[in-house]
């Protein structure tokens, strides 16, 4: 008698076994992919060889031989390519950071204005948003740069705004602080202020945890810091900073801080463009909090400010943060459009390096890796923040 | 939706004094709490301060002839004069399809429809158009669109399917009409893509980008949700890599590195390189959007399809994808609008799209210093079509009842 008990393993031949086929299919896919990439790479290496170029990053230590208009760290013709990359990266970081701050402020203002009960304010905000959202950033930047910042009068006929701020076609001059000998001790006092503020914030946080109350942690922290800063300013023998106002001297501007039209156009263009998107995000976030929440908060006796701070904002923030992150990232990536108006950001400097050294593959790879790194860093931070504030299910 | 109607909080009518008098309305909307009065005056001041000089500039100081003289360049670039009838022909087709769609779906919004018709007619009567054949063509366009609208209204629902097919067919047809088929000396010659330019090139880049990035995006989205680890990781790697870098680096790479990747002797023209860059870039974003739609499908749908005996491919094609895509139509259209705006970046790598042409126009000696006029015109065109697309997508959303099921 033969045993006809059902076998645990099916008798499907291996070429029809789904599990085998899956692995087999993936292996084939991987081989095809590797062959394809290898083919492209071999073509590239062949082409480079015909041009007499070898891959490698040793060129980064060579002398660059070009000038960069704006640099936060020292740079001249004899600096290396690597140094040029660093200058570009810092410029990108500067414009992205300031752009994000400005765009957030403008975006929140217009997002709230969009919800105003005043019909005029509401339509103005709406027009602002609709106008900017539907225009390419590049066109806006070029229009902004050539149509406004380069159309300011010459230096000897500079437009004078209170401040004094001078508007000229060579840039915008703003008053700036000149550090005196007490500057370093003032910085020390500011450090103490920051420490005290953090201490107070930490104590208030613990107090809130213990008692269930909700003290204004940020407000108190900021207040402590400002008080220390103010007291320090007057305690020191002399002022830590002297106001240095820009003045027109013949054909140039002396004193103050001069911001180039490229920088101003890029910064304001990026900030304004992104603020329209942020405004929409903020509006959607606030609208996503249901009316019942507000009514319930009022019913338990919270005042208007408390309703906003304790009920509306925390819930709106959960909706706002994820899209806000992507708009921040977009702003950082969009800063590469600086190349169109000649601000030396990372991408624009890389273009110069590419032309100068002829190292297309390495330069493009380097730029992409740096941008990837920035993106990953930002999204890691925002994901962490998002996790912190997200809704805790009980 | 229904709950608010029942609860009626939004539908409570205001007291008659506010409902029926202008003054009541003004008081309620402009001066109600005291701070709104301040805001109102601030806003009026702002509008006056910005609006007055702008209007004075636009009507008295601006020299719009830079746009008028270069109109053909801005619209079609170097496209051969003898072949421009093809562009008009594809525009007639487009006008007819838009008119039909309007008649079929958006019947109520008469005002916007009239405004839409008014665009070509208004353009036709611009002083810049006098004496050109463009004026006749523009008016004819409006007539064609209106005929389409009437037809759409009369036949209504029965035309819906046809119109959708027309839209799908239109894009490949457009590319065929513009690029041509036969040898240079015959009636339908091939126009090489380095002669495409201006708004035409912008549109073609957009259309090609939409057509090819979409299927690639679907594949990537499916790949990212696949159970097969290698395929999943390759998809994730591609999507995150592309989304982490700016479009301009990808366009640069396409311009500089693509020729290196190809075997020796094989060349690709610059427009095609830009198209490849745009497609590869948009596909990664579309993949993420489509993945969002896929994630919203409840697992029961897969189980049910499986229980019916559908294969994996059938489940994806007939059960999952239609629902997933329907959920994300607004996002997809938003991405296409972004794509349309992003095509302006090809001007940086030296192509003569609408922005590229404008850049070269203002660098001509006789138009030096007229950047405002030229770029404002370009801005207006970008804005117009982008806004129109956004508006139509909103209508489409309502018509399809997205988010209401």
Write a structural description:
The longest helix of chain A is centred in the first third of the chain and has 34 residues, at 81-114. In chain A, the strands form 3 sheets. In chain A, strands 1-2-3-8 form a 4-stranded antiparallel beta sheet. Chain A has a two-stranded antiparallel sheet with strand order 4-5. A two-stranded antiparallel ribbon of chain A has the order 6-7. Chain A is globular and about 75 Å long. Among the domains of chain A are: 19-50; 81-135 and 274-389, Orthogonal Bundle (MetI-like fold). Chain A is built from 11 helices and 8 strands. The termini of chain A are far apart. Chain A is α+β, with helices and mostly antiparallel strands and 394 residues long. Chain B has 405 residues and is mainly alpha-helical. Chain B has 3 domains: 2-66, no CATH class; 80-190, no CATH class; 196-405, MetI-like fold. In chain B, 74% of the residues lie in helices and 0% in strands. Chain B contains 20 helices and no strands. Chain B has helices at 2-7, 16-20, 22-30, 34-61, 65-69, 71-76, 84-105, 110-124, 133-155, 160-179, 198-224, 229-243, 247-256, 258-261, 270-295, 299-307, 312-327, 329-342, 354-362, 371-400. In chain B, helix 11 (198-224) runs antiparallel to helix 19 and helix 16 (299-307) packs antiparallel against helix 17. The longest helix of chain B has 30 residues, at 371-400. At the A-B interface, helix 1, helix 3, helix 4, helix 10 and helix 11 of A face helix 4, helix 12, helix 13, helix 14 and helix 18 of B.
List the quaternary state of the chains. heterodimer
Rg value of chain B: 25 Å
**Residue fraction in strands of chain A:** 5-15%
Please summarize the sheet with the most strands of chain A: 4 strands, antiparallel
> Averaging pLDDT over every residue of chain A, what do you get?
86
What is the CATH architecture assignment of the largest domain in chain B?
Orthogonal Bundle
Number of helices of chain B: 20
């Amino acid at each position: 008698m033969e045993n006809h008990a059902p076998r645990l393993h099916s008798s499907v031949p291996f070429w029809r076994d789904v599990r085998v086929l899956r692995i087999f299919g993936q292996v084939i896919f991987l081989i095809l992919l590797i062959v394809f990439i290898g083919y492209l790479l071999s073509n590239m290496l062949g082409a480079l060889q015909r041009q007499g170029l070898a891959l490698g990053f040793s060129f980064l230590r060579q002398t660059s031989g070009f000038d960069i208009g704006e640099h936060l760290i020292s740079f001249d013709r004899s600096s290396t390519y690597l140094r040029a990359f660093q200058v570009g990266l810092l410029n990108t970081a500067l414009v992205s950071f300031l752009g994000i701050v400005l765009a957030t402020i403008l975006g929140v203002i217009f997002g709230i204005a969009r919800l105003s009960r005043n019909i005029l304010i509401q339509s103005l905000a709406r027009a602002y948003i609709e106008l900017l959202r539907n225009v390419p950033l590049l066109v806006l930047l070029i229009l902004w740069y050539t149509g406004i910042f380069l159309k300011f009068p010459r230096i000897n006929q500079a437009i004078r705004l209170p401040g004094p701020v001078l508007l000229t076609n060579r840039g915008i001059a703003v008053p700036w602080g000149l550090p005196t000998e007490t500057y370093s001790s003032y910085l020390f006092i500011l450090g103490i202020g920051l420490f005290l503020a953090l201490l107070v914030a930490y104590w208030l946080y613990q107090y809130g945890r213990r008692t269930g109350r909700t003290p204004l942690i940020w407000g108190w922290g900021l207040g402590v810091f400002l008080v220390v800063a103010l007291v320090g300013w007057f305690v020191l023998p002399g002022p830590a900073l002297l106001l240095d106002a820009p003045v027109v001297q013949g054909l140039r501007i002396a004193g103050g801080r001069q911001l180039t039209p490229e920088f101003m156009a890029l910064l304001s263009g990026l900030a304004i463009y992104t603020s329209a998107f942020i405004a929409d995000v903020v509006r959607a976030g606030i609208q996503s909090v249901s009316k019942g929440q507000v009514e319930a908060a009022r019913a338990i006796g919270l005042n208007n400010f408390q309703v906003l701070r304790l009920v509306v904002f925390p819930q709106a923030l959960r909706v706002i943060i994820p899209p806000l992150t992507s708009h921040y990232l977009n702003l950082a990536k969009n800063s590469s459009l600086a190349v169109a108006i000649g601000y030396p950001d990372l991408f624009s400097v890389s273009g110069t390096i590419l032309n100068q050294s002829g190292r297309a593959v390495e330069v493009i790879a380097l730029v992409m890796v740096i941008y990837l790194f920035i993106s990953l860093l930002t999204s890691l931070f925002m994901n962490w923040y998002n996790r912190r504030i997200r809704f805790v299910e009980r | 939706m229904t709950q608010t109607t029942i609860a009626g909080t939004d539908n409570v009518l205001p007291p008659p004094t506010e409902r029926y008098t202008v003054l009541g309305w003004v008081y309620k909307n402009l001066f109600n709490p005291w701070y709104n009065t301040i805001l109102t005056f601030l806003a009026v001041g702002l509008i006056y301060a910005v609006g007055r000089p702008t209007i004075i500039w636009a009507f008295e100081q601006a020299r719009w002839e830079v746009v008028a003289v270069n109109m053909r360049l801005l619209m079609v670039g170097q496209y051969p004069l003898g072949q421009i009838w093809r562009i008009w022909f594809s525009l007639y087709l487009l006008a007819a399809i838009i008119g039909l769609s309007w008649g079929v779906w958006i019947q109520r919004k008469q005002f916007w429809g009239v405004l839409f018709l008014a665009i070509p007619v208004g353009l036709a009567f611009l002083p810049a158009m006098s004496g050109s054949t463009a004026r006749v063509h523009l008016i004819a366009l409006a007539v064609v669109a209106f005929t389409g609208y009437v037809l759409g209204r009369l036949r209504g629902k029965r035309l819906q399917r046809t119109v959708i097919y027309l839209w799908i067919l239109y894009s490949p047809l457009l590319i065929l009409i513009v690029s041509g088929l036969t040898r240079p000396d015959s009636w339908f010659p091939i126009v090489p893509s380095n002669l495409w330019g201006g708004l035409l090139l912008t549109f073609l880049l957009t259309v090609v980008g939409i057509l090819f990035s979409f299927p690639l995006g679907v594949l990537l989205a499916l790949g990212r949700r696949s159970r097969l680890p290698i395929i999943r990781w390759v998809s994730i790697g591609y999507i995150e890599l592309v989304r982490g870098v700016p479009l301009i680096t990808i366009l640069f790479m396409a311009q500089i590195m693509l020729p290196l990747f190809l075997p020796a002797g094989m060349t690709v023209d610059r427009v095609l390189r830009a198209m490849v860059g745009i497609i590869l870039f948009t596909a990664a974003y579309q993949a993420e959007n489509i993945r969002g739609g896929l994630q919203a499908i409840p697992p029961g749908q897969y189980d049910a399809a499986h229980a019916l005996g559908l294969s994996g491919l059938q489940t994806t094609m007939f059960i999952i994808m239609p629902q997933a895509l329907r959920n994300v139509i607004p996002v997809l259209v938003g991405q296409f609008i972004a794509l349309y705006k992003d095509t302006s970046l090809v001007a940086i790598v030296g192509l003569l799209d609408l922005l590229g042409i404008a850049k070269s126009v203002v660098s001509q000696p006789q138009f030096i210093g007229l950047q405002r006029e030229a770029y404002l015109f370009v801005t207006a065109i970008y804005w117009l079509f982008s806004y129109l697309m956004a508006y139509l997508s909103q209508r489409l959303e309502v018509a399809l009842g997205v988010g209401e099921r």
